[in-house]
Amino acid sequence: MNAPDTRQALATHDGAAEGYNFAYLDEQTKRMIRRALLKAVAVPGYQVPFAAREMPLPFGWGTGGIQVTAAIIGRSDTLKVIDQGSDETTNAVNIRRFFARTTGVATTRRTSEATIVQTRHRIPETPLTDKQILVYQVPMPEPLYRLEPRVAEAKKLHALADYGLISVKLYEDIVHHGSIATTYDYPVIVNGRYLSSPSPIPKFDNPKMHMNPALQLFGAGRERCIHAIPPYTPVRSLDFDDHPFEIQRWEHACALCGSRESFLDEMIVDDAGKRMFVCSDSDYCHDRRAQQANDTTEGASA
Amino acid sequence: MYVAVKGGERAIEASWRMLDKARRGDTRLAELSVGQIREQLRLAVARVMTEGSVYDEELAALAIKQAAGDLVEAIFLLRAYRTTLPRFGYTRAIETEAMQVERRISATFKDVPGGQVLGATYDYTQRLLDFALLAEGHDVDGMPEHQARASVSAPQEEPVPRVVTLLNQEGLIEQETPSPDASEPGDLSREPLSFPASRATRLQNLARGDEGFLLAMGYATQRGYAHTHPFAGEIRFGSVAVEMELDELGFAVEIGDIDITECQMINQFTGNHEVPPTFTQGYGLAFGHSERKAMAMSLVDRALRAEELGETLSSPTQDIEFMLSHSDNVEASGFVQHLKLPHYVDFQAELELVRRLRAQHAARPIDDQAQEEQAA
Predict the structure, then answer these.
(1) Which residues of A are identified as catalytic?
(2) What is this model's ipTM?
(3) CB atoms within 10 A of CB A46
(4) Residue B354 confidence (pLDDT) above 70
(5) What's the rounded Cα separation, in Å, for the pair A141 and A218?
(6) Would the pTM count as exceeding 0.90?
(7) A51 interfaces chain B, CB cutoff of 8 Å
């Protein structure tokens, strides 16, 4: 199983890179990553060290997610890559192109068509299914790093499930600001045991992690760690009885599709500082507009 | 309207084309060849090989050309290439004592067996811009420099003994001998860095570490942040043979020569209950001619031995996790520059929070505000 996957030459796809193994990584490396993934799935929320490689994209730009995707992707997969919820942001374009070149697999912008969704900073608005895998790019997998930068110490705290520090931090937020002042990368307890970082998704997305039918894999390349949330696993966002967890709300609806349920990006559209709010999830927004256009046409023709 | 987020693909392609053009510069001037970089920018090549952790002058020169002289980018290119290479096995430990020395100096003794060999160095140049180099095409063969270099590279008759070995005759300095039952050293390019890190792992990390980082941290140790009382016991540069045992043959064969720079720093140690006062070592090694790197590395290596030698831990330069986690420029450069990536989702989340907090702040009861003013 460690022989180079040379079938790529047969299954040539336009633009597939020559001279590299399927999905860039050699089979030994993929096997090493899969072992780490299996352990991560077996111990939900636990950070499994793995020997991340230098990738042809810089550390900090999604190398962990790319390595996880490279280790799990097969010829029949359909890949979607988003950054900030959008398929069109430069880094998403770059990573999608990387896999198109090195695997030749089909890529898509439609959440429902994808078997693997690699993401940075968002969970798609469209609910995922048990046929899908969500791969997160993770800059800092250690949820305690702002409180305890020493990895060796943080490991001990995890081993002892000693999470007092983070509760004190949230409590201090409430004392200072009247509410918890963490808005993204909001810490969660996975499966009632490990404190985990959801990667810097807005806390708006945290509830989507809970009991999600899809497998959620988190790859941190520079920090050389993988963690996972298996399908249908309870994920609790930290809070207090008298200060329950809550997500962001907007006074606005999306200016394009009118959604009031999605996470909105704010854009400054003129020199006078006029604002416009649109969905961060470009596929979701596009779908809704297509649906609306359809309805209008049907209405007109009827 | 959607320009900011749409059309990324075409914009990236256009950016690639512009990059190629910018790298090439003025086409009226001849293109720089990889061979020219390899021969005439040898110190840049050495740095890229060391921190890229591949000994291949041609590929390092190619990376420098492709990166338009940005050495950290070139190191990254070489590392990313290196990842894809199959691992055939491990060579035998190189014998630096058997080095064909081109340069060898010791700051601890006026003369030492094997002598002080200055070789090619900038150390004793006066740093005056040599405007003669501005005039191109006057490269004359048989210049005195060429002759000097030729005579230096002529093989010396016998291996040059190490200065620290000479000191050992009085038992004055600890010797670097393999521990009898030590486990095989790990391979940082194949295993994640974990703590506590053994000295073998630390030295691997420092050898790949950024020269600037090591220079600054080594400098800090000289300025009192974990002072290690260093003396440059020996610095040598030259070529050593690399030997590998081949399974089919059952014995070691020489597979080539590499140029390396080695530094053995001699540091004071006050001793403790068991050990009388003695000298200890800090060690530095780099590919090619890289004395600054090798020396800085040896200072940092010694500072990181504080715990093992029972010294007081008082400075970040002695903190193994701090130093090893931040020494790699491929990692550091990537993470610092990832801030260029879009963060508008997170920023939107923060905007929402700050607006809410400001609204609450403005709506505080008047009493609170008055109290604060009084206190102020």
Answers:
(1) 45, 254, 257, 279, 285
(2) 0.80
(3) 20
(4) yes
(5) 8
(6) no
(7) yes
